[in-house]
Write a structure and sequence with these properties.
Elements: E1 9-13, E2 19-20, H1 27-32, E3 34-37, E4 48-49, E5 56-57
Antiparallel strand pairs: 1-2, 1-3, 4-5
Amino acid sequence: MALLVEKEVRAYQTKANTTICPVCASDEEKAKETPLVAEDVIHDPAPMYCVRCKKKIK
C-alpha cells in the first residue's frame, strides 16, 4: 500500500485562466478552483504572477 502525500499547492487557476496564489485565494476559491501543484508541468515558460497581489508564483 502506498502512502498518500499531500502535494504543495503553488497556485489556483480560475475558470478565466488567471492564477491566484494560495495566500490571496479565499476558502471558497480553494474549494472550487483547480489547484496547480508543485509537480504539475506548466507548458508556458513565462513566469506566473498572482492576479491580486502581483507577486511571482514560485
